[in-house]
Design goal:
Helices cover about 60% and strands about 5% of the residues. It is mainly α. Strands 1-2 form a two-stranded antiparallel sheet.
């Protein structure tokens, strides 16, 4: 998938995605092939998308909060990501020296 398509699927402006690619902060693997920037494997994209969604939600909802309220909201939104079966699978796979088998789920209800 090319970078522009990926950006639109993630509800990110393509220029923002390109800037992230140039600065090395794109949250998915990507490589330049000629004039195209191809976004890497689909499994990694699904898993990382959960973190991106949680971060975007935090940014949208925390604008008018106090620092304390924002940290509380941060915990609410990121705990499902860091306590998901995929988070556990990543640690176990690393420890066992094997590639992870991602499910792409991150919420208690199993949503993607």
């Amino acid at each position: 998938m090319n970078l522009g398509e990926w950006a639109r699927q993630q509800d990110i402006h393509p220029q923002t995605a390109y800037r992230w690619f140039r600065t090395g902060t794109l949250p998915v693997p990507a490589r330049k092939m000629g004039k195209l920037i191809l976004v890497g494997d689909l499994e990694a994209r699904r898993v990382r998308a959960a973190s991106v969604r949680a971060s975007k939600e935090l940014m949208k909802r925390s604008l008018d909060l106090t620092e304390e309220e924002a940290w509380e909201l941060n915990g609410e939104l990121t705990t499902p990501v860091f306590t998901s079966s995929d988070a556990f699978e990543g640690v176990v796979a690393f420890a066992e020296g094997r590639p992870p088998v991602w499910t792409g789920t991150w919420a208690e209800d199993g949503s993607e």
